[in-house]
Amino acid sequence: MLMKLVQTGAEADIYRTQWLGSDAILKVRKPKEYRNHFLDSQIRRQRTIKESQMLSHAKSIGIPAPLVYFVDVTKSSIIMQRIPGRPVHDLPGSRIILLSKTMGRLAGIMHKNSIIHGDLTTSNFLLCDGSVFVVDFGLSQNSSRLEDHAVDLRLIKEILNSAHAAVMKQAWKNFVSGYGSAVGSATCSQILELVSEIEGRGRYATVV
């Protein structure tokens, strides 16, 4: 199997490869030398299984996400569909504003179905053939707790504020609009209050 390393991360290495004639991505979780060997193996195995399950769950509720082709728990690796798109992060500000409503709606659908993405950034939304895909479920989990949903939203808001400051206000407004369309206005308001509360804790911690 031909492979080309395209990204090295703290948790995993990402390779471009082929699977039954289709472009694919191979994600391999790397051993952590500082951890007990047995414990490390268990953690990597469990996270690999969890990620593949979350990807499949997301697909089942209509989220545009990569298909899982093959999971090798002994090697802590997943072969999945390669989405040949551009990260929203790399698009012009005007496009980010327009796409934010879709990103918010997709986040809302996931949260409504108890999927916490865990790394909700503009780099993990890809624009491909006019559709927005969600990728990298490596930190995802199941949770119906509104505070966990708020943590997801807090991260995307923080990314918009830091990486896309010029369009942050309009992009966040559109994101919230899309999110509310999926979860309902009452739930959306509750979660936004929690986002503000989390932000308040951060400011307090900074002052102290």
Query: What would the average pLDDT be, to the nearest integer?
Result: 94
Provide the low-confidence segments as ranges.
Answer: 204-208
Put simply, the count of helices is 5
For the secondary structure, the number of strands is: 10
The helix-strand sequence is EEEHEEEHEEEEHHH
Q: How is the topology of this model organized?
A:
Blueprint: E1 4-8, E2 12-19, E3 22-29, H1 37-60, E4 68-72, E5 77-81, E6 86-87, H2 93-112, E7 115-116, E8 125-128, E9 131-134, E10 141-142, H3 146-163, H4 168-183, H5 185-207
Antiparallel strand pairs: 1-2, 2-3, 3-5, 4-5, 6-8, 7-10, 8-9
Helix pairs in contact: 2-4, 3-4, 3-5, 4-5
Notes on the protein architecture:
- The chain has 208 residues and is of the alpha+beta class.
- The chain has 2 domains: 4-81, Phosphorylase Kinase, domain 1; 86-201, Transferase(Phosphotransferase), domain 1 (Orthogonal Bundle), CATH 1.10.510.
- Helices cover 49% and strands 22% of the residues.
- The strands form 3 sheets. Strands 1-2-3-5-4 form a 5-stranded antiparallel beta sheet, with helices on one face. Strands 6-8-9 form a 3-stranded antiparallel beta sheet, covered by helices on one side.
- Strand 2 and strand 3 form a beta hairpin.
Short characterization:
The chain has 208 residues and is α+β, with helices and mostly antiparallel strands. 49% of the residues lie in helices and 22% in strands.
Keywords for this entry:
Transferase(Phosphotransferase), domain 1; 5 helices; 10 strands; 208 residues; 5-stranded antiparallel sheet; 3-stranded antiparallel sheet; 2 domains; alpha+beta; Phosphorylase Kinase, domain 1; disordered C terminus
